[in-house]
C-alpha cells in the first residue's frame, strides 16, 4: 500500500514537471498563471505597445518571433463558413469564363450555409442571359426542391429574360414554363398578403415582361383576362408601366390573314382597345397621385391611334391638345401635362401624316422647335416635316420646294454654328425628300440648289455655255469634311430627272443629263453587285430606300424620255460625242427596263395624289359623325345643368 502510494506520487510529480516545461515555452498573456520559479523562465522579448503593422499575435513561436503568414493552422482550428455573397461572386466569375456547367455543379454541391435564394437567382439570370432557357427553368425547379422559396425578384429576373424571345412558336414548352412561373408568382403574393400585407414582396413588376410575352405569343385574350383580374388598389394595382406594356403589346398585334381588309380590321381593333385603356389609365391617375401619364406611355398610344379610323385619329388630336401643350392654329395652348419628348414629337408628326393633315404637321413641328431644347430636335423630325411638304405637293399646294430649300439651309446653318445642333445635319434621306417637293412643281432652280447643298458640285458647271463663259468640261466637287459630300441615290436621281422633264426647258434637260453622265448613274443602275460588296461612290449611290426597284425603273423610263427630248433620232451620224454618250445611256436604260418588266409596288407618295373620292368622302363622313356626337353630348350637358339650376336661377 505504501509502495503504490509512493509510485503514484512519483507519476504525479513527473506529469507536473512536464506541464511546467510546456507552460514555460508559451508566452504568458493571462493574469492567472502557474507559479513557477522565475529563474527557470526563458527570456521572451516584450512586444511594442503600438506596432507599426497589424496587431500582435495571440500566440508566439517558441523563438519569440511572430509566426509567418503561411504557417499551417493549428490542428482543431475552425474554418470560416463560405458566405453567400462571396459564393455569388465565384459563380459570376465562372459564368463570365463561359464555365456554366462548372458553375451549376459548384452550386449544387455547395454547403447549405453558402446557398440562399439570391445565390440561385444569380446563376439563373446568368444562364438565361446565355439563352439556355431549359437549363434556367431546371435550376428554378431544383432551387425549390432544395427548400429555397422563390422571391418576387426570382420571377422578375426569369420573366425579363424570357421576354427576349420573339418567335414563341419555336418555344412552346418554354411558353408553358412561363405560364407556370406566373401562376407560382400569384400563389407567392397571395401567401405574402396573408402574413405581411405591407411587404416589399408585393410588387407588380412581373406583369410588364409577362404582358410582352403574351403579346409576342399572340395570346391577347389571356392578356386582357389577367389585366382585368388585377386589383384596383394597393401595391398590385396597375401602374403606368403596366399600361405601357399593354399598349406596346397591342401595337404588335398582326392580322391572321393577308389582305388590306384584315389589316384595317386589326388596326381598328387595336385603336379601340387603346382608347379604352387610355380612359382607364386616366381614372387610375386621378385616384392615385403616384400614377403619372408620361411620354413613354403616350407615344405608343398616339402611334396606335394614328393607324386607326378617322374618329380614333381625332381622339389622338384631343390627347395632343390636352397633354402636350401643342395647339392648332386659332387655339389657346394648354399647359403641358407631359413633357414634349423626341419620341412624342415623332408620333405627333406621324399622326398628322397618317391623317393627311400636312399643314398641321408643319405647324406642330415649328411649335416644338420653339419650345423644346435644340438637342432634342433631330434629323428624323425634319424628315417627317419634309414629308408633310411632299404631301402638300400631292394635294396641289405650291411653293413647297422653296420652303424645303429654306429648311435645308437652316439645318446646315444651325449645325455649323451651334454645337448642340449637330444632330440637325441633313442626310441622304433629308435631301431626297426635299427633291421630292421639286418635281411636282417643275422647280429646277430649287432642285439644283438642293443638289449643290447635297454634293458640293456647282450646278452651273453642268449648264450650257453662254454669256458667262464656255461650259466647264470637268466639274470639280467642293472639298468638305468627311461625310459632308453626299451623293444622290437612285430615288434622288429619279426626282432630279423628273424635275428637269417637268420644267419643259431643254437647257435644264441637258444640264440634268450631264449630271447623270458625270455621276455614272446608268452603270450603277445595271450593277448586279450585292450591296455589301459596293465600295466608295458605288456604296453611296446604292439603292437607298425599300422601294428601290420602283425608283430604278422609274428613273430608266424618265431617262429614256429625257434623251428623246434632247437628242433627235434621225440625225444619228451627226451626233456630237456628248450626244452619243446620252444615246448610250438611253440604250442602257432600255435594257434595264426589259430585265425588270414585271410590276413593282408603288410607294404612297407616288400613287395617291389627292386620294380617291370614296376615301375622302368616308373621312369627311367619319369626322362629321364624331363632331355631331360631341355637339349632342355638349347640348345634353347644358340641358341637365339648366334643369338642375331651375327656371329662376338666371
TrEMBL record:
Family of this protein: Belongs to the CCM1 family.
Region named Disordered: 42-72
Pfam assignment, any one: PPR_2
Organism (species): Fibroporia radiculosa
Biased composition (Basic residues): 63-72
PANTHER family xrefs: OS03G0856100 PROTEIN, OS12G0638900 PROTEIN
Keywords linked to the UniProt accession: Repeat
Ranges: PPR repeats: 116-150
Subunit description: Binds to mitochondrial small subunit 15S rRNA.
Protein name: Pentacotripeptide-repeat region of PRORP domain-containing protein
Transmembrane segments: none
Function: Regulates mitochondrial small subunit maturation by controlling 15S rRNA 5'-end processing. Localizes to the 5' precursor of the 15S rRNA in a position that is subsequently occupied by mS47 in the mature yeast mtSSU. Uses structure and sequence-specific RNA recognition, binding to a single-stranded region of the precursor and specifically recognizing bases -6 to -1. The exchange of Ccm1 for mS47 is coupled to the irreversible removal of precursor rRNA that is accompanied by conformational changes of the mitoribosomal proteins uS5m and mS26.
Signal peptide location: none
